[in-house]
Amino acid sequence: YLTKMININILHRYLVKELLRTFIPALFCLEFLLVLGFAIQMLHKGLDVPSLFSVLPYMALYTIPHALPASLLTSTVMTYGRLSADNEITAIKVAGMHLHHIVTPIVVTGVIFSILTLYLNAEVLPRSYFKVRELQEKAVKRVLATHFITAKKKIDFHPYQIYITSIEDGIYRDIAVFEYADDYIVNILLAEEGEIEVGESGSRILLTLRRGEFIRPDIKNNIDTPKTGNFEEAVFEIPLRQRLRHKALKYATLTSLIAQRGEIEDKLSGSEEQFKDPEKTVKTTWREVSAMDAEISANTTKVRKAEVELKKSKAKIPKQEGAIKRAKFDISVFENYINVARSNISKLKLEREIEEDTKILGFDLRGEEEFKKNVSLIEKIIEKEKRRIKKAKRKMSIAERAIENENKKIEDTGLEVKEFLRSKEALVKERLVLVERVGVAENQKMSRELSINIHKRLSPSLASLSFILIGIPLGIMTRSNNMLISLGISFILILFIYYPLVATGLILADSMNFPIIPSVWAANAVNLILGIYLFSKILNK
User: Fold this and answer.
1) Residues 37 and 89 sit within 8 Å (Cβ to Cβ)
2) pTM of the model
3) Fewer CB atoms near the end CB (10 Å): N or C, the chain?
4) Backbone angles phi and psi of 237, in degrees to 5
């Protein structure tokens, strides 16, 4: 038994050594090809060579999770293909060792690489992305400081960032435009002034710059284009593409994502309302909120108008009350005039009687005609004052009716204001309900997006193990140690099966109509099913 165990340990070490002997060169080759492809892409987009060298370590880090599974698949197919071609597997079986002794060490190796890939995706790469973002922010600040641009306003039109110092009469002053590609600055435009307007179709932004310079422009189509230059006026079209939602999640580690999802799930646990399509719910609810805001605004306008009318009515009442007071005063004055006039008539009559008595005694005083004339004049004054009293009373009556009308108007308007306020209060309450609904739907969206990001970090780590489980039976079945055959099998599986399934699954997961786990893990599930099927074929043989 001891001898058998020693032989098994020797076999395991031998198999792992054979795998690593092929795996390490394959990993370096794939890393080199992937980094070279990214580098050429960045150079074509305008990134200069010094900047490219500064980001090469991050590019190499980004490509490791993609290169690891492919390298493991290639090396596994090649290792077991050679063992099968040289009849070493047959010899191992003849020695009394079961097939699982040939498989176990490589599967354990796949588990180790899966854990390594998980650590890279979960912790290392997010921090690396964040470091690249910090480097870009420093580069932006350095460019702005070099050209004495004090950015007071920042506008994002993905993949462009526009920094503006000031705005005068609709003209932007001291503008800096940065173009990004995969988190790297590939283009810089600086101008003294410019304008931004939306195109007629609404799908693009027209950026007009004057008296500026460009640094590292797009040199994809013309390798002779200078890397710096000046221009007097230039117009650029910026397509309005939809920005990636919650881009900050890219910089969050797996533990942070899980913690965020836990917080959102706690918020959602207190909500009874759940939506099948949160994204659609958010859009339709915001439209309802917008319509309600318009209704609330119209209601507020009505209240303001009614309050203005109330103020006017209340301001009119004191005027009418003043008119009544003046009319009453005038009436009392006019009545006094009448009383005085009547008193004067009485005096004249008394004087007339005295004159008649003196006439008998032989004295010649005023005549009858003068008496009648004076009485007539006084009576005319009395009639005039009566007319004035009548006119004053009419004014009083008009003022009283006006006060009555204004009081009625105040009462009616007050009722209208109360009704408007009740309606507004009901609308505000309904709006709060809708906003809460949006909050719940947004939390559902965010929870789903966090879940997608969590599974996107977890699922690639299983690729290393699943590819090994496919590579072992494939290598045994091909019975070839040819490197080209192993690479061909690997690329067929990866390019035509695995990555199309991964891309399709992510699209389905983002559509909010499919479950997350089947969508994101479908590619690995297919690999595992295929591996089990191939193993069954070998065991049957």
Assistant:
1) no
2) 0.67
3) N
4) -100, 125
